[in-house]
């Protein structure tokens, strides 16, 4: 089969090489169609996306991408947001679990964040009222809220999860977050075997850093989902171990959620674990469960042993050395 590979900016090119090497070692049979996108490509060519990229994603239905840089406070909109809205990959799925060998404050984290991916403040509807006042519209619709909540409960049912928690601020934003919460409760009634509750976003952040084990599946509107995803990644050692999938009806885009790390780009120092874990998610969805298990187990055992790991988790291995050691375990 064919799948699109987007290396992206910064360290993206290095970790993309890890994906191709591991894919070959696993004998997945995937033919990678490599396309450029991001700030570096834009600086060289005057456009964010290589011509043909969007058409190829639509044809294949499967894509894996590295990090792409986004200017802060100016410039172009996030490529991630553009791709999610272009292909209506409405569900952002981020599993977060503790890895033996990674030093953290907790060793019992096992969470899944389900983030609505297409609306809320990330819809990008903002404008200047005058020279001194900017305004942004928080767009929440019933259809998108029902869809993402149903996705979360379906995921919980399929994977034996026991509880789904809605994240909101409906005590203040009574119409927008209130609509999201009412949709959640409507959907929850259809899944009586799964416990359902809701938590206000600020209280959730406190509870997550106190006792993360009290949560299972978290479903949230776009902005809150983005924030808590990074918070939860911090519970298990950081974004270097945070894979993600953007899931729509026809297209799935998997990605490492960390940044492009320009300070170490080109130095062969990056930890490729996140994009490889995203690749494992992709393999599982392609019904290559055995290959996904082999890859996941190899990452866990390599990190736990700790002799050939990258600098972000206390080692001295290069990206290439980490990848070679991983392939040896496969």
Automatic annotation (TrEMBL):
<comment type="similarity">
    <text>Belongs to the isocitrate and isopropylmalate dehydrogenases family.</text>
</comment>
<dbReference type="Pfam" id="PF00180">
    <property type="entry name" value="Iso_dh"/>
</dbReference>
<keyword id="KW-0560">Oxidoreductase</keyword>
<protein>
    <submittedName>
        <fullName>NAD-dependent isocitrate dehydrogenase</fullName>
    </submittedName>
</protein>
<feature type="domain" description="Isopropylmalate dehydrogenase-like">
    <location>
        <begin position="2"/>
        <end position="326"/>
    </location>
</feature>
<dbReference type="InterPro" id="IPR024084">
    <property type="entry name" value="IsoPropMal-DH-like_dom"/>
</dbReference>
<dbReference type="InterPro" id="IPR019818">
    <property type="entry name" value="IsoCit/isopropylmalate_DH_CS"/>
</dbReference>
């Amino acid at each position: 089969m064919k799948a699109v590979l987007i290396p992206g900016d910064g360290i993206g090119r290095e970790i993309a090489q890890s994906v191709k090497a591991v894919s070959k070692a696993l004998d997945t049979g995937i033919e990678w169609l490599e396309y450029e996108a991001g700030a570096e490509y834009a600086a060289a060519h005057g456009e964010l996306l290589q011509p043909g990229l969007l058409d190829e994603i639509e044809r294949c239905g499967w894509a894996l991408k590295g990090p792409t840089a986004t200017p802060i406070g100016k410039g172009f909109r996030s490529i991630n947001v553009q791709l999610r809205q272009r292909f209506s990959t409405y569900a952002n799925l981020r599993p977060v679990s503790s890895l033996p060998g990674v030093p953290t404050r907790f060793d019992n984290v096992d969470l899944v964040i389900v983030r609505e991916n297409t609306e809320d403040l990330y819809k990008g509807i903002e404008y200047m009222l005058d020279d001194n006042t900017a305004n942004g519209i928080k767009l929440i619709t019933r259809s998108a809220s029902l869809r993402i909540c149903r996705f979360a409960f379906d995921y919980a049912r399929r994977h034996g999860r026991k509880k789904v928690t809605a994240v909101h601020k409906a005590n203040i934003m009574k119409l927008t977050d209130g609509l999201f919460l009412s949709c959640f409760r409507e959907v929850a009634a259809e899944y009586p075997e799964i416990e359902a509750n809701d938590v206000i976003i600020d209280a959730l952040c406190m509870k997550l850093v106190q006792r993360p084990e009290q949560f299972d599946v978290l479903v949230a509107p776009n902005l809150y989902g983005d924030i808590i995803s990074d918070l939860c990644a911090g519970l298990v050692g950081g974004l270097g171990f945070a894979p993600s999938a953007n899931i729509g009806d026809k297209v799935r885009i998997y990605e490492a959620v960390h940044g492009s790390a320009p300070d170490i780009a080109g130095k062969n120092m990056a930890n490729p674990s996140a994009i490889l874990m995203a690749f494992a998610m992709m393999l599982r969805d392609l019904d290559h469960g055995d290959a996904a298990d082999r890859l996941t187990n190899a990452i866990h055992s390599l990190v736990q042993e700790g002799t050939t790991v990258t600098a972000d988790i206390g080692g001295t291995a290069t990206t290439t050395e980490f990848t070679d050691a991983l392939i040896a375990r496969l």
